[in-house]
Amino acid sequence: MISVEIFTNDSGMIAGYRVSGHSGTAARGQDIVCAGVSALTQSALLGIMEHLHRAVTYDIASGNLEMQLSDLPDDCTEAILRTMYMGLAEIEKISPKGIRIREVKG
Q1: Distance from C-alpha of 60 to C-alpha of 30, rounded to nearest angstrom
Q2: Three-state SS for 86?
Q3: DSSP 39-81
Q4: What is the pTM of this model?
Q5: Cα 74–15–25 angle (5° rounding)?
Q6: According to the model, what pLDDT value does residue 75 have?
Q7: What is the pLDDT at residue 55?
């Protein structure tokens, strides 16, 4: 199962996320749940870094991705990260055995 933790600040804005594991719903390289989660989370990271030019700390390894904003979230980072969250939530609806999302309030 893929575990996703969405880290929010006291205002409810997303400040980072952690993704770990594999969905286990199909053979390696054929798993659309894993591919969808990877596409959403990596695109959010790229959008924040390359389009918004925001500083982040991140770590990417096989089956794992962790990203944390270096500064406070703003409306632009929130738009990208909230869109990612909504996409992940849709994947969770169609594959509840493949992904679990948990919001961690900080």
Answers
A1: 20
A2: helix
A3: HHHHHHHHIIIIIS---EEEEEETTEEEEEESS---HHHHHHH
A4: 0.92
A5: 125
A6: 98
A7: 98
Mean pLDDT of the chain: 94
User: Quick one: tokens of 6?
Assistant: 């969405």
Burial per residue of 26-45, b for 16 or more beta-carbon CB atoms within 10 angstroms, e otherwise: eeeeebebbebbbebbbebb
41, 63 contact by CB (below 8 A): no
% of the chain residues with pLDDT over 90: 87
- Tokens 């309030």 belong to 105
- Residue 3 token pair: 């575990």
Sign of the CA dihedral running 99, 104, 40, 78: positive
Confidence of residue 31 (pLDDT cuts 50, 70, 90): confident
- Mean pLDDT is lowest, of 21-25, 27-31, 53-57, for 27-31
**Triad 18, 62, 36: Cα angle to 5°:** 65
